[in-house]
Amino acid sequence: MTFTIKETAIQTGLSEDTIRYYEKIGLLPRAERKQNKHRVYHAEDIETMRIVTCLKKTGMSLDSMKPILQLSQDGNLGEYSELTPLLQEHKKKIEQQISSLQQIVDFIDGQLKAGHTGGNKEECTLVEPVRKSPLVQRR
Length: 139
What we know:
Number of helices: 5
Number of strands: 2
CATH class of the largest domain: Mainly Alpha
Structural class: mainly alpha
Helix content: 40-55%
Largest sheet: 2 strands, antiparallel
Distance between the termini: 55 Å
Oligomer: single chain
CATH architecture of the largest domain: Orthogonal Bundle
Shape: flat
Protein name: MerR family transcriptional regulator
Keywords: DNA-binding
CATH topology of the largest domain: Multidrug-efflux Transporter Regulator, Chain: A, Domain 2
């Protein structure tokens, strides 16, 4: 079964422009083309795009995804021992994010239990401080 770029975009949650861009930068393989030059996608392509979406949600850069996507096509981590440290480090970052978010949830729960009366003196502390981006002042 094949899919148009529009159908693929709907199934993956990616825009058509994003799919084209990912092909252009080599993150995705070039799509097959019909005689009329329209792109054609297969279930395997859609699965790869879902992996990209998943990894992107974890904060992984597009460049870091490329070797992992190659692995997902080949399917054997043992043949790509150089990726093991990359995946382990990324997993560690995700676990730290989860821990920080859980601390925030615990803080909010404490605030809700205190009934917003200021009775809860628990502080919101994070394992890793959140970096603030510079604010642009509007005039």
